[in-house]
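Regression test case RT-17, inverse folding.

Input:
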């Protein structure tokens, strides 16, 4: 993760997703490819050689059918979401509860509350 105030917003037990930003020909299209949970607090990456980076533990499960950005672009809950408006913004990216629920519904995934 990039070194920003956002690192302090990430905590164990929060839901998370693996979003792939389109990389051009030969790369998968932009969209949500996995969902899961944050499993550890962010820590500075000791192996980062170029610049300070943070890492966080996650547990992810690949979606049977990715939810592509094109599907989300037309969903009302995703109208103002940062991942849609600024797809190359640094991670982590916050998503509203309504937008997350919409993405899970499109992926046919039942949300579970891991914080209980």
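Golden output:
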């Amino acid at each position: 993760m990039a070194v920003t105030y956002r690192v302090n917003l990430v905590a164990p037990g929060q839901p998370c997703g693996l979003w792939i930003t389109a990389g051009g020909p030969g790369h998968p299209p932009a969209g949500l490819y996995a969902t899961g949970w944050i499993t550890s607090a962010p820590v500075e990456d000791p192996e980062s050689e170029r610049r300070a980076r943070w890492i966080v533990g996650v547990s992810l499960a690949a979606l049977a059918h990715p939810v592509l950005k094109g599907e989300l672009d037309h969903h009302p809950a995703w109208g103002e979401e940062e991942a849609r408006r600024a797809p190359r913004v640094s991670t982590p990216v916050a998503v509203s509860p309504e937008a997350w629920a919409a993405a899970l519904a499109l992926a046919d995934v039942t949300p579970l509350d891991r914080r209980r």
